[in-house]
Each structure stands twice: as structure tokens, then as C-alpha cells.
Design a protein that fits this description.
Keywords: Metal-binding, Zinc, Zinc-finger. Pfam families: FYVE, PH. About 20% of the residues lie in helices and about 25% in strands. It is α+β, with helices and mostly antiparallel strands and about 260 residues long. Bound molecules: zinc ion (2 copies).
Amino acid sequence: MAERLANSEANRKRIQYIEQCFGNSGEPLLVPGRVLVGEGVLTKLCRKKPKPRQFFLLNDVLVYGNVVINKKKYNRQKILHLENVRIQSHHDIGELKNGWQIFSPSKSFVVFAATATEKTEWMAHINKCVQDLLTKSGKTPSLETCPVWIPDSEANACMICNTPFTILNRRHHCRKCGKVVCDDCSKQRWSFPQQAKQPQRVCDNCFKELESSTHAANSMSRVPQNDSDDSDDSDEDDELPTSNDDEAQFYDGRRN
Ligand SMILES: [Zn+2]
Ligand SMILES: [Zn+2]
């Protein structure tokens, strides 16, 4: 099925259209052998609150972005290579149901589908793509993933020292464990090449762990505290109106 789709004109046109919708803000998506498996809007748990995001599942990558104009224009494209992706069902959070976690070395987050059926379909298709890729390449799945950030709303105080957050005592996220901590408890920086070029903020607990685990062998990655700009908002996005009344669509009708 995937092989047949890979060579089909319909598949080529679909991918080309997605590329067009991202315009210059995105990377070229049309590469030989690539197949669009499915697409749809999922609610992504972002730092401040849940937001709708357009997702495209291709046979080797998961692409997502903000919806500027529904089905016409997207921006802020992110690409996750499925070889390194793992997923896991997630419990409901109030009104948010049918969720699962997506883990990867560069980004990890929680998404929610509109219905239980869509969740099942998404998860089955993602897992199938990951499996097929690993089988084909003979690789074992990467265990290195970055943490899912705990949403700001779940922490009114630093998760290490318990000092309440205020306008002055701002929230920060540890890039190792995803906890919400104050500046005093996260003065250290550590290099995570998969997440960013610049050394990233880590909490004191994680710093101790990282330091002891790489002690003699790899002191290179230790980075002393610096004054690099840490906007700490890398996951934040513009607020954009969207309508997500349409269902997810999958092009490979076969169920496993
Ligand atoms: Zn603290
Ligand atoms: Zn930490």
C-alpha cells in the first residue's frame, strides 16, 4: 500500500500542497519515497494552555505547525523524525480527552484528538510508521528523549524550593526533567545538542545528576553559568483563530 502510494500522483500532489501551505516558512517536504499517511488538527498542550495545531503524518516524519488559515496556510513548521519518536497514551486532563504523549529527542509534548476513534487511528498509524522504519533500517529506537514540559498552570510555586511564582519570580522549565522551577534553582546550563545549539537551562537536581553521570568521561558538556539570553519561551506561539471542525484523514485505509 505504502509503495503504491509513494508513486501515486495523488500522494505527490498532497505533499506538494502541504509544502505550499507552509510556504517559505517550511522545509521542502516532497522527497522520493515519502508518503502522506494522514493529517488532522490535534490539540497540543503548550506551555500556557492547549492550542490547536495541524499535524501531518508522513511515513518517515511527523510535521506540525500553526494554522494561519485552515487548510490553506500554516507556519512555525516543526519536523520530528519518526525513527526517534515514541508515543504513549495519556490520561484525560479535565475536558481534554483522547490524549497521548509524543516523545522525541528534540521535542516532547502531549496532544489530544477530538474522538477516541481518532486517537486510536493516529496512534496506530504513528506506531506502524515507526515500526516500518525501524524494521527497514535495522536500527533500535533511540532512548534519548527530551522531557514533556509541565504546563505553567500546574505549578504555582517552584517545584524544588516551593517559593511561589510572581511577576518577578518567573517560571522556568528545566530542559532535562520538564519541571517548572524558579531562576535560583536553575542557574546552571547544560548542552543538549538534540534540543538546541545553545546550552540549556537545567534545574539544580538535574545538574547534579548530569554532572555525576558524566563526571570524568565527558566534562566537555559541562557549561558554566552564563548570561545567554534565555527567553524560556521556545514553545510559545502566536495566538491564531482556527476552526477545527474537520476530522482527521488517513490515506492508508488498512487497519492493523
Ligand atoms: Zn526554586
Ligand atoms: Zn530538572
